[in-house]
Amino acid sequence: MRAVVLSIGSELISGLRLDTHATEIARALGAQGIEVVRHETLDDDAQAIAESLRAAAEEADVIVATGGLGPTPDDRTRDGLAEAMDTPLEPHPEAVAMLETWAASRHRALSETDMRQALFPHGAEPLQNPLGSAPGIRARLNTAEVFCLPGVPTEMHAMLTEQVLPRLRARTPTRPDECRGRVRTVRTFGLPESVVGERLADLMVLGRHPRVATAAHMGTIDVHIHATGPGEEVDRLLATDAAEIKRRLGQVVFGEGETRMEDAVAALLAKCGATVAVAESCTGGLVTARLVNVPGISDHLLEGVVAYSNASKVRALGVDKDLLAEHGAVSEPVVRAMAEGIRDRAGADFAVAVTGIAGPGGGTPDKPAGTVWFALADAGGVRTFCEVFSGDRAHVRERSATYALNLLRLCLLEEGEAG
Amino acid sequence: MRAVVLSIGSELISGLRLDTHATEIARALGAQGIEVVRHETLDDDAQAIAESLRAAAEEADVIVATGGLGPTPDDRTRDGLAEAMDTPLEPHPEAVAMLETWAASRHRALSETDMRQALFPHGAEPLQNPLGSAPGIRARLNTAEVFCLPGVPTEMHAMLTEQVLPRLRARTPTRPDECRGRVRTVRTFGLPESVVGERLADLMVLGRHPRVATAAHMGTIDVHIHATGPGEEVDRLLATDAAEIKRRLGQVVFGEGETRMEDAVAALLAKCGATVAVAESCTGGLVTARLVNVPGISDHLLEGVVAYSNASKVRALGVDKDLLAEHGAVSEPVVRAMAEGIRDRAGADFAVAVTGIAGPGGGTPDKPAGTVWFALADAGGVRTFCEVFSGDRAHVRERSATYALNLLRLCLLEEGEAG
Lengths: 419, 419
Known about the structure:
The structure is a homodimer. Chain A is of the alpha/beta class. Helix content of chain A is 41%, strand content 26%. Chain A is built from 15 helices and 17 strands. Chain A has helices spanning 10-13, 21-31, 46-59, 77-85, 93-105, 112-115, 153-169, 193-199, 231-249, 261-272, 286-292, 310-317, 321-327, 332-346, 393-418, and strands at residues 2-8, 35-42, 62-66, 89-91, 119-121, 125-127, 136-141, 144-149, 179-189, 211-217, 220-230, 253-256, 276-280, 301-306, 350-356, 371-378, 381-388. In chain A, α2 packs parallel to α7, α3 packs across α4 (77-85) and α10 packs parallel to α15 (393-418). The longest helix of chain A is centred in the C-terminal third of the chain and has 26 residues, at 393-418. The mean pLDDT of chain A is 91. Chains A and B meet through α1, α2, β2, α7 and β10 of A and α1, α2, β2, β10 and β11 of B. β2 of chain A pairs antiparallel with β2 (35-42) of chain B.
């Protein structure tokens, strides 16, 4: 099965807002073995929407569109779909009932504007929206099944999961001998992309199956393995390549698929039964916030301190004033004292500290913007590291946070092996 | 002038990676008065790339494509462009020279694979890549000007800014009486989208010029004003509408355009010469990290504490143990004590505290997941607020961080008016 994903909205097309829906939908469809062949982003223009829907129906079995279902006049997806289906819009009794239930739950009356959301192309059916007013639309356009979902992220997400995917699952091949395309991803941090590429050169040659490709983002190098064939055969091919890639790359592999660096760290903290505390300066809370991304981290994360000023490095972490005066806030002795200070005060098994110059200002010839010191403290002492990152302020901070978490991961791996 | 933006890469189409390039390019083109009419995301497939380039050349004056220019076999943009132009690929002497310079600067020899990057469709010209090996491509396809840039974010960004925009600027109308489309955005937080819509109903009617539309994201409601016409006229129309919208919405407006909530807060902190400290639990450092997004915040941000465990609420913030035992960590008395504790310890003028249940677990019938308590402390005392947010863990945390910053903003506004 082939799918086209359409994102509709003038705020997307003009770049006022980043579209994350197409990515989420493509992943979800891919996980069900449905191949996405194209994304397209369109303006709120009924004519353009109709043309794109028609073109998509020529090449795909499934079309998922988001946006343009609200009550305001700039919401034109209903009109575009009706035009593509060559049928008028008319109130759909079930959609009217959904709107009435929604309004009653909020103790408000339905205006004429609200009622626009119940206008459906003839033959289309409404999809329940559990979080907002606008029902989704399911329709048939030639041989393609069309799903239109609201653009509000929480509503889109809920309806994709609860309404669209279960309906598609019923249509997706489940016999193990049926052909499907699958991707498996091995995630790494700590080697440049060119070195990863050299170690995997023979797996990455053109024409090889499975296809192996790398993609770099903020220092993380993902190795994607693509295979096509009967279900069990594909799983076996992917497993063989994944195992070989992990063998060659060793400890720089931190996980597979959707695993984030913080998930890998949290799993090791749980395995070791260890606690951690964090002291941050330039990352300003990002390291701690990344750990808190993981539900259940409260058993292991004791405390984070963002000691952004020198005064707070002294007060909250016990860094010696003279050390700051002599070496500056971005220095080996200071990052060491930060890690020792937070580990001691929080009573944690491990502590991570980060201090650096995120830029754009603040750099000197000795310490250019992008210079970041890291320290990792455990019962055995403190280890320190220095890196000079390129890129803008956001890039330096994000990459520093991943680097700090990776240090903790490597240390926990050692701990696990020793224990 | 009209533009189409193409993003090329199997990792984009399958949702393995989020495409942020199209958004960046659309914004940059829009700022130069070039209207983006469509984005499309494509697989690394020469045939599909050729077809999309041909279709885009029918509807646009400018095509900007990213991705697929690297040396590996899955990079197919060169082949697609050659096919669309109906001309063979051949080594381009200037591109060869660029590659040789790049290799020399890295003390490495050029492999046959590397040299693929110097193959150009006949008639195309190379664009200097200041950060990587793959030169960009500039070509003409019928009446459209085509720019192909690498997919690596830092390279794409540098080449868009240094190579593409200056060349387009030469083609963009600069006489003030020439027609152009412009967008101005008023950003708000604190009112639901429906209420913003009601207050602006007469400005949002279909067919009005300028066109006024709202877009919601994580509780922030953006009001976009779109106008077309001669340059000065457009600026005047946008200014009139922006002023009227701000008048009607009052203090919920926190800025315009690219202004983030943290930028608004930082500007007010600077204006008042005030300092702030932050105590966080469920947001886990996000409030502090958002403030640190703003360069120069070190003059105003003294300290942030992520007191994720009860023990650290006691130790690092001085919250009374009995208070925690009696009311629980997510409660009015505890959030109040957190704000008082951090303000006192850091010696700050203002303090913000957040404690809540981000979910998915941890909720009770009394305190469902999504329940978040906020406190704002200043010399006059402490004010507390409670909200119950819907959505997943990431959504609750992100929205809570914006809510906390907004409380600080409103308090600083009062301060500014009183002072």
